[in-house]
Amino acid sequence: MAHSHPHDAQMAKLHAELSHLEAYSNAMDVTQVTPRDVAQFKERVHSLRGKFHDTLRARDQEEIRSLKHLKNMFILLLVISLAMECILLYLDAEDDSNRKRNALLSVCAALLFLLFCVF
Fold it and tell me: What keywords is this UniProt entry annotated with (predicted)?
């Protein structure tokens, strides 16, 4: 399934502008190009390059935020499952106080790990 990115529309617009610049440069009669034409063309290319870089930078930052969020959610699920397993060990320990204490310590360690990693 294709993933549509919010910056795809901006990239398509920039590609269209690049194609227009390329067609313009191909259609130019080099014998009639003035220094002003060259300066304007360079300015348009420089502007377009800046727009591409800005769009790519924004896209990269958005991807990084998304990956950080996914990482935090994965850690949260991992710690919750570990804590649930420790609680089950505690409930299974019956009257063995050492096993119950170890299970409770494991739950506390899992929660501390969660606090350390996510927050």
Answer: Membrane, Transmembrane, Transmembrane helix
